[in-house]
Design brief:
Helix content is 52%, strand content 11%. The protein has 16 helices and 9 strands. It has helices at 2-39, 50-53, 71-76, 94-114, 125-133, 153-161, 192-204, 215-224, 248-256, 267-270, 272-278, 281-295, 299-315, 325-338, 365-373, 378-405, and strands at 42-47, 79-86, 119-121, 137-144, 164-168, 207-209, 229-231, 260-263, 343-345. Strands 1, 2, 3, 4, 5, 6, 7, 8 and 9 form a 9-stranded parallel beta sheet that branches. Helix 5 (125-133) links the parallel strand 3 and strand 4 (137-144). The chain is globular and about 55 Å long.
Length: 407
């Protein structure tokens, strides 16, 4: 009897030991993920927080109760470099568009000036790495829409001189020289002037961004550009058939010339179910009316409240719920197509509807953990988090040096 008790006790101890050793293995991934995440340079190529700077009462250095981006939450999420979007609607053109763009560039530079101990304006990959060594967040800028150069290469050069390091060739509407993915084709892709814009961006060392452009514009740009392209905030059309997303073939062709697709977190580009539900005209009008009621003409407020109201509709069951794991699905799909060297992160924070679990920058470590749990190597995770974008930046800078030395 005593012997049976001893044997049984020993068996229980073995089972308990197995359970105890298994649990730390699972927990070890969380620990390893956190260590990896905060040891990596995490780069986000698209954030619309700039609109909030113009509302007059937003301080990047203070924790905000709304939106997705501020310095405290960037630090909590290990966000090391952020591209602030310079954006105005496509319908605003000419000198007025230029004025709005310059005001936004000034607003970004002013927020950086106010917080010199925590954030620094940079323009090169080397400066991003230097900011990291100094314990600071690297701030960069991207112009979201070629309509903001008013068909003037001199304006493009001015933006570059002020620190802009990418330009999205179109936004939601066509501009004077390129077709958008969400407008009726007017130019059959890029015009001759549009091709000159791409060439000048190459010379200036400004990354060419093909998010928002039509498929034909993409292929025209790919043929003209001597430097790799980025899709600063696009997802995979095979998983969500939005015109703004890239087809598998486009992703392959982008990667073949050294480019990177930075996955967008907007639920309407992650989930086809949400995309279709969101097109319901009654829901769209109700959300738009409520946004107008809460914000008036303040564009920063409109973007933030649009996300907040959308989440309220999800909780009421009027729209489908989308989890942050959809981001991982799109990353994984792109990696399976082209490898881990050509995928990055372009959240669209403060400018789109975020999935549950990725409400703000503090949630970014979940991406690292999810990728490790899928079996990604630490090296590949580092690439996706930011190294791929830094590599493209370096290549664009190299092409710029070569083009300028040839003249």
């Amino acid at each position: 009897m005593l012997r049976n008790i001893i044997v049984a006790s020993a068996a229980l101890c073995v089972i308990a030991g197995i359970v105890m050793t298994a649990t730390p293995r699972a927990d070890d991934i969380s620990v390893r993920a956190r260590k990896l995440h905060f040891a990596s340079i995490v780069v986000d190529t698209h954030d619309d927080t700039t609109q909030r700077f113009l509302d007059g009462d937003f301080d990047l250095g203070a924790r905000s109760a709304s939106g997705s981006i501020d310095i405290p939450r960037m630090k909590e999420g290990g966000l090391g470099a952020i591209f602030f979007s310079i954006w105005i609607p496509s319908k605003i053109t000419g000198p007025e568009a230029v004025k709005h763009a310059v005001d936004q560039i000034d607003a970004v530079r002013e927020q950086v000036r106010r917080h010199p101990q925590e954030i620094v304006l940079v323009t090169t990959a080397a400066e991003v790495r230097d900011a990291r060594k100094r314990g600071k967040i690297a701030a960069l800028m991207g112009v979201e829409g070629g309509h903001m150069i008013a068909s003037d290469l001199g304006v493009l050069r001015t933006y570059a001189a002020l620190g802009v390091r990418y330009m999205t060739l179109t936004h939601s509407g066509n501009d004077e020289w390129a077709d958008s993915s969400t407008d009726a084709a007017a130019h059959n892709g890029l015009t001759d002037f549009g091709k000159d814009v791409v060439r000048e961006m190459n010379r200036l060392g400004v990354m060419v961004d093909i998010s928002h452009v039509s498929d034909k514009t993409f292929y025209d740009t790919l043929a003209v550009s001597k430097a790799p392209l980025i899709a600063s905030h696009s997802s995979c059309r095979a998983l969500c058939d939005a015109k703004r997303n890239m087809t598998d073939q486009m992703i392959k062709d982008l990667a073949a010339k050294g480019g990177v697709i930075q996955i967008n977190y907007h639920v309407g580009f992650l989930s086809e179910e949400f995309m279709h539900a969101d097109k319901n005209p009654e829901i769209a009008k109700a959300i738009a009316d409520e946004v107008q009621k809460r914000c008036g003409d303040k564009e920063g407020c409109q973007l933030i409240e649009g996300d907040r109201i959308t989440r309220e509709y999800v909780k009421q069951g009027k729209l489908p719920r989308v989890e942050y794991t959809k981001i991982i699905e799109h990353i994984d799909h792109a990696v399976k197509l082209v490898g881990a060297d050509h995928v990055g992160l372009g959240s669209d924070f403060d400018g789109a509807n975020m999935p549950f679990g990725m409400e703000d920058a503090s949630k970014l470590p979940q991406i690292t953990e999810a990728l490790l749990r899928k079996g990604y190597s630490e090296e590949d995770v580092r690439k996706i988090l930011g190294e791929n974008t830094l590599h493209v930046m370096s290549e664009v800078e190299r092409v710029s040096r070569e083009l300028n030395s040839a003249k």
